[in-house]
Structure formats: structure tokens, C-alpha cells
From TrEMBL:
Source domain of life: Eukaryota
Keyword match Transmembrane: yes
Membrane topology term: Single-pass type I membrane protein
Name the record gives this protein: PCDGH protein
CDD domains noted in UniProt: Cadherin_repeat (cd11304)
GO biological process: homophilic cell adhesion via plasma membrane adhesion molecules
Length: 351
């Protein structure tokens, strides 16, 4: 009997036969008491035939079979009886959908997990039998990015990572999974995947401005460069410190919002160094730490801070002996002066 058969349905049973005649052959029937079934008689041209009447709805998942005894008793004295066993098998109807253990699952996955890593083994159960209990798994309609990153095995329900993750791109995914049985009934669950950050991004240094050349008479503390340092990682892995590498009269000062100022730390002197090269090194606090660097080239421009100097500067004057009959226009002496400045500032005129 199918479990979906409605109460009141009748099923004919075999008639009993008695070789006696008269009242000795009159037969009455009795059925083992059971709340799900009763016995009814149907009058036909051949006599009264017993029928099994379904009294209550069946549920194969609660009881899949029944054992009853049908007894036929004649009208003789003493009465004689015969019995037959009635075995009722309840066949399955797809009246139970698949069921997940949980409506929502939460999983954490490092962003450096390799493709092919198992994310979660889902399992749904179905109280039905046979093909009605055979479950296949799949994703519901989801954003294409999630479908690119994850795949679910239709038979086992295992969710696998199929493409590398990037915490800085997407920090979480919501996967909608369905389990469908052989009769078409469906169960749903959500899988929340949290992507955990790893220190896979080195700091990024951006030069916002560079004042070069800078006059050599610029006062100490003059801002010569503005930098922006950014690390795409989170937490300590995204916290950055900066320092200058290389010799030079410069220092770096932290400002707000990841900005830094490079300032002059002492007086400049173009005549000693017309160019300063320093390297800005940014290092995060990850374990292990990642760093990046960029070079700053600062040119020093000249100011007229050097007077001309005669080559014979050790003496304050020149003594030249000239014959009184020297012709007009004769060269008496040649003097040379130099200036440490450059360009017009170092161009010397004599008078």
C-alpha cells in the first residue's frame, strides 16, 4: 500500500471456503485488532467477501510494515476456523524533503589557501527511501565572483576552493547551497566564508610632491618631500613605519593618515654636495615583515654665499716693478680670482 493512499480506501482479501454445507459452512471473519485497519464485508453474487479498510493515514517513515491475521470461523458446533497471515508493506512516497544539520554554516579560510582546498563537507539527510532519498547538491543563483571561487560536488556535497582568494579584494562570501532529492524536493542552507588576511602585501610608497632643487640657504626643517605610505593588509600587518637609509642632511617625520614629510635636518651647502640621494624604506609589522623602498634625489641650488677669492689670497697686495719706459698697453701683471658659486653667482669681473 502506498503511504499516500487516503483513509477509507478498501483492499479485497481472499475468501475462505468450507466444504461443509448448511449452517456448518456459514463463515464469519475476524481481523487482528489494529488502529490503522479494519475489516468490512462486501456482498457479491458469490457471497460476502472480506475487505481490508484503511482507517488512518500511513507514514512509512514511522512504520513500514504491518502483520495482521485474518480468521474465518464457520457456523458449526463446535465451530471450526482457519487463518491466513496478512502482511502489509507500506511503499514510500516522496513526502520528506532533504534536511541539513544547520541552516547556516560559518567557515574561516586564509587568503593563501591553495586552490583545491576543501572548504566544508555538507551533508543532508532524507527520511524517504530509494530514489526519493538520493540527494544531489548544487549552488543556487549567486554572484559570478562566488561561483568562480567555489565549486560543490553534486554527489558528496563537498565545497572546494577552485580559485585563489584575495582578502584585499573580497573579505567574505555567502554561498547558497541546495540539496535536492530524487523526487524533486529541495532543502537550502547558507555557507558564510570569512577570508582571513595574511601578510601578502608590501607597503606602497607614493611621492606626493618633491621640492627639488632646494636652495642651499633653506633653513633647517624645510619640507622637501611629501610621501603617502599605504599597506593593503589589515591589523598589525597593515601598520607601517618609515625610515631613511643613506647619508644626507635629511630626516623623515610621520604626519597624519599615513603621510610622511621629508625635511632638512641640517644646513645645506651646495659647494660641498650639490645632490643628496636617500632611500625611503617602509616596513610593516607582519611576521615576517614586508618592506619596500624608493629613492629620493634632492638637488641643491646655488645661492651667492661665496665671495671671489684671489689665488694669491695669502697676501693682501701685489708688488710689481715696472720700468719707467714701459710702453703704454704693456701687461704689468695678471691676477686670477675664483668663486665657488655657480652660474652668474660664480662669474667674476675685475675692476
Amino acid at each position: 500500500i502506498d503511504e499516500w493512499i487516503p483513509p477509507g480506501t478498501r483492499f479485497p482479501l481472499e475468501m475462505a471456503h468450507d466444504a461443509d454445507v448448511g449452517s456448518n459452512s456459514l463463515v464469519t471473519y475476524q481481523l487482528t485488532s489494529n488502529p490503522s485497519f479494519s475489516l468490512a464485508m462486501k456482498e457479491t453474487s458469490d457471497g460476502s467477501k472480506p475487505e481490508l479498510v484503511l482507517e488512518t493515514a500511513l507514514d512509512r517513515e514511522k512504520q513500514s510494515s504491518f502483520e495482521l491475521v485474518l480468521t474465518a470461523v464457520d457456523g458449526g458446533d463446535p465451530a471450526r476456523s482457519g487463518t491466513v497471515q496478512v502482511r502489509i508493506n507500506v511503499t514510500d512516497a516522496n513526502d520528506n524533503p532533504p534536511v541539513f544539520a544547520h541552516d547556516r554554516y560559518r567557515i574561516s579560510l586564509r587568503e593563501d589557501a591553495p586552490p583545491g582546498s576543501a572548504v566544508l563537507n555538507l551533508s543532508a539527510s532524507d527520511a524517504d527511501a530509494g530514489t526519493n532519498a538520493r540527494i544531489t547538491y548544487g549552488f543556487e543563483k549567486m554572484p559570478s565572483k562566488a561561483l568562480q571561487k567555489f565549486v560543490v560536488d553534486a554527489e558528496s556535497g563537498t565545497i572546494t576552493l577552485q580559485e585563489a582568494l584575495d582578502f584585499e579584494d573580497t573579505r567574505a562570501f555567502s554561498l547558497a547551497v541546495e540539496a535536492r532529492d530524487g523526487g524533486g524536493l529541495v532543502a537550502h542552507c547558507k555557507v558564510e566564508v570569512e577570508v582571513l588576511d595574511v601578510n601578502d602585501n608590501a607597503p606602497e610608497i607614493t611621492i606626493l610632491s618633491l621640492s627639488s632643487p632646494v636652495p642651499e640657504d633653506a633653513p633647517t626643517g624645510t619640507v622637501v618631500a611629501l610621501l603617502k605610505v599605504r599597506d593593503r593588509d589589515s591589523g598589525e600587518k597593515g601598520q607601517v613605519s618609515c625610515e631613511l637609509a643613506g647619508e644626507g642632511p635629511l630626516s623623515i617625520v610621520a604626519s597624519s593618515g599615513g603621510s610622511y614629510k621629508v625635511v632638512t635636518a641640517s644646513a645645506l651647502d651646495r659647494e660641498q654636495a650639490s645632490e643628496h640621494r636617500v632611500t625611503v624604506v617602509a616596513r610593516d609589522r607582519g611576521r615576517p615583515a614586508l618592506s619596500s623602498s624608493t629613492e629620493l634625489v634632492l638637488e641643491v641650488s646655488d645661492v651667492n654665499d661665496n665671495a671671489p677669492v684671489f689665488e694669491e689670497a695669502a697676501q693682501a697686495e701685489y708688488t710689481v716693478r715696472v720700468p719707467e719706459n714701459v710702453p703704454v698697453g704693456s701687461v704689468l701683471v695678471t691676477v686670477t680670482a675664483t668663486d665657488a658659486d655657480e652660474g652668474q653667482n660664480g662669474h667674476v669681473k675685475y675692476s
